[in-house]
C-alpha cells in the first residue's frame, strides 16, 4: 500500500466514523432543559404524588385503615382535645385526629383536597378557555373588534373581584338553588367556579392577545395569507400551535392560585360548608385550637403551603424550559 493511500485512509476514517448530528424538536429541547432543573423535577414529582393521593383518596384511606367520617370520641378529653396516642402520630392515625370531633386528620386532608383540587382545576380550565378565545380574536382581528374586547376587559379588571365575590356570595347561591341548578354545597362550588373564572380570564386574555399580535406579523403567517389560507386555517394551524408554551406556564401558575383562593373563601365561610371538608374549612377549624393543639394548625397549613409551592416551582421550571432564549 502506497504512502498516499495510507494517508488518505487515516484522514477518511475519522470522518466516516463520526456520528451524524441528530436534530431535536422544540419539545425535546424543552424537555431536556426541564430535566436539568433539579428543583423543577422534584416539585413535579411532589405535585404528581399529591394529585394521585387526592384522586385515589378512598383507596389510600382503605389501605391505611382510616375513615374521614369515623368519630374517635374515646380519645378526647372533656374539652374535646385529643389525649394519649391520638394527640400525635400513631399507626392508627398517622397525623392524629381533629379536636372536637375525633375524625382522622389525614383522611380529612385527603378527602378535602378532592374538593379543593376540583374547584381549582375547573376554574383554571374555564378561565383559560375564555381568555384564550378572547385573546386570539382580539389579537388577530384587531381594529374595532379588539377595541370592544379590550374595553370590556379593562372594565372587568377595574372591579375589586374579592369584594364582589364576598358581596354576591349569598344572593347568587340562593338564586342558583331557586333555579334548581344545584343545592347546598353544590351551589356554593358552582358559584366559586363561575365567579373566579369570570374575574380570572381577563388577565390571561391580555397575555394571549400580545402573543397573537406578535405572531400575526411573522413570516409564516404572511406566507400562509399569500397562499390564500383562510382565517380559520391560519388561527388553528399557524397561531394556536405557537401559543401552547405560555398556556402551559399559566396553567401551572394559575392552578395553585385558585387552590389558595378556594381555601381563603372556605376559611371565610363563603365556600363549601360542613359537613363537607376542604383545606379552607380545616384551616378555619384549626384556628380555634391553635393554642391548645398547634400541630393541627401547622399540619393543615403546611399541606396547603407545600402544594402551592410545588406547583409554583413547576411553573417556574416550565417557563425557563420553554424560553427560546435559554441556553440549549
TrEMBL record:
Localization: Cell membrane
Domain (ABC transmembrane type-1): residue spans on this chain: 113-315
Keywords assigned: Cell membrane, Membrane, Transmembrane, Transmembrane helix, Transport
InterPro entries reported in the protein's UniProt record: BP-dependent_transpt_permease, MetI-like, MetI-like_sf, OppC_N
Membrane topology: Multi-pass membrane protein
Main location class: membrane
An example Gene Ontology biological process: transmembrane transport
Entry GO CC: plasma membrane
The organism's place on the tree of life at top rank: Bacteria
Transmembrane segments: 43-65, 115-141, 148-169, 189-208, 239-258, 295-314
Family of this protein: Belongs to the binding-protein-dependent transport system permease family.
Name of this protein: Peptide/nickel transport system permease protein
Organism: Candidatus Planktophila lacus
Amino acid at each position: 500500500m502506497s504512502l498516499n493511500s495510507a494517508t488518505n485512509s487515516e484522514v477518511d476514517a475519522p470522518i466516516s466514523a463520526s456520528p451524524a448530528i441528530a436534530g431535536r424538536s422544540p419539545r425535546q429541547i424543552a424537555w431536556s432543559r426541564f430535566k436539568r432543573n433539579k428543583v423543577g423535577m422534584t416539585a413535579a414529582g411532589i405535585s404528581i404524588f399529591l394529585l394521585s393521593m387526592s384522586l385515589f383518596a378512598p383507596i389510600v384511606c382503605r389501605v391505611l385503615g382510616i375513615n374521614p367520617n369515623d368519630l374517635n370520641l374515646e380519645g378526647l378529653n372533656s374539652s374535646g382535645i385529643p389525649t394519649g396516642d391520638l394527640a400525635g402520630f400513631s399507626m392508627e392515625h398517622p397525623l392524629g385526629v381533629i379536636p372536637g370531633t375525633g375524625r382522622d386528620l389525614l383522611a380529612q386532608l385527603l378527602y378535602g383536597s378532592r374538593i379543593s383540587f376540583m374547584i381549582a382545576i375547573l376554574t383554571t380550565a374555564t378561565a383559560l378557555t375564555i381568555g384564550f378565545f378572547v385573546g386570539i380574536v382580539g389579537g388577530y382581528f384587531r381594529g374595532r373588534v379588539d377595541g370592544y374586547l379590550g374595553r370590556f376587559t379593562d372594565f372587568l379588571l377595574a372591579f375589586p373581584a374579592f369584594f364582589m365575590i364576598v358581596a354576591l356570595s349569598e344572593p347568587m347561591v340562593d338564586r342558583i338553588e331557586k333555579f334548581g341548578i344545584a343545592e347546598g354545597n353544590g351551589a356554593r362550588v358552582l358559584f366559586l367556579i363561575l365567579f373566579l373564572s369570570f374575574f380570572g380570564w381577563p388577565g390571561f386574555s391580555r397575555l394571549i392577545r400580545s402573543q397573537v399580535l406578535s405572531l400575526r406579523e411573522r413570516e409564516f403567517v404572511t406566507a400562509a395569507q399569500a397562499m390564500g389560507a383562510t382565517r380559520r386555517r391560519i388561527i388553528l394551524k399557524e397561531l394556536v400551535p405557537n401559543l401552547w408554551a405560555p398556556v402551559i406556564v399559566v396553567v401551572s401558575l394559575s392552578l395553585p392560585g385558585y387552590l389558595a383562593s378556594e381555601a381563603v373563601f372556605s376559611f371565610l365561610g363563603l365556600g363549601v360548608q360542613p359537613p363537607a371538608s376542604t383545606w379552607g374549612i380545616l384551616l378555619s377549624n384549626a384556628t380555634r385550637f391553635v393554642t391548645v393543639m398547634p400541630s393541627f394548625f401547622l399540619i393543615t397549613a403546611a399541606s396547603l403551603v407545600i402544594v402551592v409551592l410545588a406547583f409554583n416551582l413547576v411553573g417556574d421550571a416550565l417557563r425557563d424550559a420553554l424560553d427560546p432564549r435559554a441556553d440549549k
